[in-house]
Amino acid sequence: MKHFLRLVGYECRKAFGNPGIVLFLAALLALNGWKIQDQYHRATGAFDPYKRQYQETYATYSGTITAEKAQKIMTIYRPLDEKLRNMQLKSEYDPNAYTYSEATDEQFFGMLFVYEMQYDYYYRNNAISIVENARTLAQSPNVSAYIARENTRIAWDFSGRSIPNFTDTRGSHVLLNYDYSTMLALLMCIFGLCGVFVREQESEMSMLLPTTRYGTGATVAAKLTAAVLFLLGIGILFYGEDFLVIYTLEEYHDALSAPIYSLAKMEQTPLRCTIGSYFLLSAGLRILGLMACGCLVLLLSSLAKQTLTAFLTGFFALFLGILLHDGSGSRTGLKWFNPTELLFPREMLRWDRFVNVFGFPMRQAGFLIMTVALLSVGMLLWVLYRSRSYHHQGRRQRHGRL
Hints:
402 residues, mainly alpha, 4 strands, 69% helix, disordered C terminus
């Protein structure tokens, strides 16, 4: 075991420790840090001049939603809304306005407080309606057994749901919709893994591996272990940076303990976890997606004759996977074996969708994880077969010359 760990360390240094990869990774992390903070300021910067007013208003209305709070804020917002509908809202300077303009007041209270509080307040009634409809359909004698089981699951998912507290979810919305780090991590994955196997074939060192102390099997296993550690590190660096940047920029962090369906785009999710737990789950799924994509790149590296060929084929293969993800829409059959689907978990976790597995409803997310995992195992077995086959071929050629 000690010798194998030493071999893994050697493969890590050889494949991923060169200055080119380290500098490229540092540049991508710097670019990602700048991009996400830019996204955050674009989403929240419109009301930065009124930060002090926001702090005072948020201190008044945050926490448990009560009828008194709702009535109080509507007393402020309702006259502004009526003026907007009657086209009487003024944009001129007004010293009596909270933000020195009636038009800005309407946007300030509406976008930051009223709309969000209304969503939270009425979510419980919407969830009750979904549960009642699902139970009615499940008990109907005119539906199939599968439809009945599916609606029973839906009724259980939405039962007892409510959003009791009003929290600042602006940073969570930015992080929920941020995919730029995934594209950079994918690029780093291709750049780092494309030469893992093909470099030995380019230098013809693969013919010498069977004569080494550890042999072909241990060397290939060490390469795969090093690749997994590399992908795990890449995922932790990029997705950890995303969370830390938003956490640092955010002034309020109470939204992390709110339920995930507090975010408007996740209102129909089957998940019942907190927003903080969701981001941890999302990072885990994205790392699994990176590993599945890495398996494809490793397979192409074992099949290619040149590093450039492995890089280009890996790039275009994953690019086609992303295009398929964007174009497949709700056609779940096109998603089942696409490893890039796990890189964008928001799309598969925001809906309560199922796959019919022998008459029983299985969550689409779980089914996709299972099929992508099986595909990844198949690609790894192919890599092992190709590597050992190539080395055996090299052994036969060497013995033939002797």
